[in-house]
Amino acid sequence: MPLNSFKIVMDQKFAPEYFVTIFRFLRLKDLHSCLLVNKYWAICAVPILWEAPFKINDSFTPSPKVIQTYLVFIPDETFFELGYSKRIGLSIAKPPSFDYPSFLKEFSYDRFLNLAIANNCCKDIIVELLKIFAINDTKLRRFNTYDYLFDQHLECQDQIAPLVLPYFSECNLIFSSLTYLECIYQWPMQKVKLFNAIAQKCHSIKTLKVSVWHEDEGKVLANLISSQKHLKKFFLINSNNFASFPIQALVDQKHSLNSVTFEDMHNNHDLSETKFFNYSICDLNSDAVDVLSQCTNITKIKFKHCEGLNSPLFLPIISTFSNLISLEYSYGTHKIYDATTPIKLLSGLIKKSCNTLKRISLEWHSLDYLDITQLIKAITQRTINLEYLKIPVYTLEQLVLIHQAFNQLKKLEVH
């Protein structure tokens, strides 16, 4: 059978949804090749290619043509009204073949902003682009705002970012299907309107990653958390004492929440690489810790670069988390030492979940000898289903204890 005939027969036999399913397994370059086969294949491939043009991934650099294509949807008169002598972006010989804005599912605010500025978009044009997304019935699955900035436009972004963000409140329908929200390490600007806009229209967030620096933001974020139906994963990153507000709101998610992460809450200037960083230890109030203790379905807990965990305030969670599958704690590097390792907290969590833990990852570097023999005994003598263990070792006795007890481990790392 000739190749063209084979393609026609295949097109007729398979419904569009089957092509979409198949195409989602293809690599990006192969997906681009599908555009050249025929119109039918292009119709299936284009929406997938345009779901995540900003790609929330540090290794991916978006094409300038992404913004240029979106600019096509702004009328000529809008450019003239805003002081442009001519429209910017791609030249328009005919209307676009596809409704590209409607395909957008993953939105990285920082990369969007960088590309817009690189294409000579002023603040007002950027706001018009947001309106285009709303007009074209864009429904986001993921929204990310994070200070992953490109150096050539850094100063410009610092000025424009706080001015544009509040306009999302006028386009809040784009958040109605949101399942993933990340708003961390942010510029020193208010996010109250953004959180309010999302809370009003979105009730399906499954994963939430946030930084909290201000009281009003903490309270609004608490309202956003309470408005969700089934929050599963919560990440609190680089936050101060106002984070107690959203933590307390987790009481409304205690039946669905199964994973919590605390990250980058410390006073060590050598550990920070971001431009805007709030130096503060993990400083929750007793009400927030009490709410954490009520979230009994949590199976994964992670602490990374956090100080203050050795406070007695956190000990009540030991008696609650009895179903942990994964426990992770890390602080510093081989040149940055951990002076406040919460041995009592870690030992207590391990003992309480000894029947369910499958993964324990403990990584820190201390300047002086730290007696963790009891911690190692808690691991070796109590855990029965452990498959992965990473832990620092200070003495030969500790190393012997580990090797004698864990023949069933799939992976062991000592350092």
In terms of topology, how is this protein built?
Layout: H1 3-13, H2 16-23, H3 28-34, H4 39-49, H5 65-71, H6 76-81, E1 106-108, H7 109-118, H8 123-135, E2 142-146, H9 154-164, E3 180-184, H10 192-201, E4 207-210, H11 215-226, E5 233-237, H12 244-249, E6 259-265, H13 286-294, E7 300-306, E8 326-331, H14 343-352, E9 359-364, H15 373-382, E10 388-391, H16 396-405, E11 411-414
Parallel strand pairs: 1-2, 2-3, 3-4, 4-5, 5-6, 6-7, 7-8, 8-9, 9-10, 10-11
Summarize the structure.
The protein has 16 helices and eleven strands.
Task: Walk me through this protein's architecture.
This is 9783_t:CDS:1. Pfam families: F-box-like. It comes from Racocetra fulgida. The protein is α/β, with parallel strands linked by helices. The model has no long low-confidence stretch (mean pLDDT 86). It is elongated. The chain has helices at 3-13, 16-23, 28-34, 39-49, 65-71, 76-81, 109-118, 123-135, 154-164, 192-201, 215-226, 244-249, 286-294, 343-352, 373-382, 396-405, and strands at 106-108, 142-146, 180-184, 207-210, 233-237, 259-265, 300-306, 326-331, 359-364, 388-391, 411-414. The chain has 2 domains: 1-49; 52-414, Leucine-rich repeat, LRR (right-handed beta-alpha superhelix) (Alpha-Beta Horseshoe), CATH 3.80.10. α3 runs antiparallel to α4 (39-49) and α10 (192-201) packs parallel to α11 (215-226).
